Amino acid sequence: MSADLARQEREVVDLTIHLLAGVLDDRSGAELVRRMLPAALPWVRFLPDTAIDELAAELVATAYVALSLDNLAPVSQLLIEWRHTAEVHADPKLHAMLTRPTGDDFGPVPAPGPAA
Hints:
This protein is an all-alpha fold. It has five helices and no strands.
């Protein structure tokens, strides 16, 4: 990738992140983003309402930090994690299995030892 193309892409991403953050700061804008997320990320429909709000906030916060590092990998990882969360909510049996109380406490976890 040429330096000019990389600079142009950075400008677009920077503008997009700042616009999204500004929109989310406004109550009506936050509702608009919340309504639009399912169009951009169809799997969002499986998340509970509060999780969609959390996803939007985390997305902006992570994008800000990732942009400051010139590394968007954390944004991609965040989307992967939220998509997996949506997969759990989409499968009632899996959701029930993962959220049921076990009643078991296996005690404290020992500190890891030195690497081998």
